[in-house]
Amino acid sequence: MSTRFVLAPLLALALLLSAASSLAQPRLVQYTDPQGRFTVLHPQGWRVSLLLGRVVVVAQPGLNSACLFASLPRPVEAQSARELLDNAAKVIARLQPQAAPISQPHTIGSNPEVCVQRFELKRAKANNTAVLRAVRRGDGTGQFVFYFAPAGRFSELEPLLLRIARSVAIPEQANPTGSASEVRFVTYNDPAGEFTCAIPEGWQVTTLPGKIIVVSEDETQVVCALATARIRPNAPPAKRCAEEFLDLLKQLADEVVPAEEGVQVCHVPDIFAQALRVKRGNVTCAAQLTVQRYSDGTVQYYYYQADVQRFLDLEPILCRILSSVNTTGEVGK
Hints:
Blueprint (H helix, E strand, L loop, with lengths): L2 H22 L3 E5 L6 E5 L3 E5 L3 E5 L7 E5 L2 E2 L5 H15 L3 E3 L4 E3 L4 E10 L4 E10 L4 E10 L3 H14 L17 E5 L5 E6 L3 E5 L3 E5 L7 E5 L9 H15 L2 E4 L4 E5 L2 E11 L2 E11 L5 E9 L3 H14 L1 E2 L6
């Protein structure tokens, strides 16, 4: 038998296995958040962003394939992985409202304790399979991970998505000295009855025309959180809304500079996120803007800022304020 006929199939097999290995384990690069809040590994060309200071989003360009949402690993109040999963499901319902559960939650292990639930995610171009995992460790820390990919490629991409999720880390120097749980919050009820929110005791609340709520540490508003109701029926895409917001912000500040390129986090709903540096006088602030446009054409804005020296300590407090805002009344008035 000719040696050529023996080596040819072996060479083809070697090339096939090499290609399969390359597909299963693409080269990952490290992303470092410009504010120093976290690091994560991701395939070259994927986009990374942070929503409301707690949810890392890693997605393929175009958002038509694999995408992952992972909360930062931090102490949690949940007493079990199932309770943590139920809380995470409320967050996912806002980010991916078209996700429908196709299995009951089931718990694995004890330390760490893991609770898992599968979903179907119907999208315009293809149906996706999705998984929500909640992990609660014995030291009281926890994290949730939600990831999806096209149903036909889910088994192939799931190991990669889990590898990305497990790489999310908070650098030691980024651990805040304070915590939102250590601050006394009180409920603020708008005198006009249009909204309620939780604010740190002693902080100030200002309402502006157009259903805009500003919660600030003091009258300087250097440290503040801003939220709106669902406003502007027939609003343009979230990215354009963000650009308009930045144009307005530039009129109020001496300098507004993107800390990095903005990220299209989702298409349904349409979510755009942008990290910023804002300078007013001799004070430089780190800031985060998130714009969410809903399928009915309305849009919501979330913005917070703090001086760079205290940003990591204050961010959990500012995010808790924004998460607590509950607006009522007619949209667009």
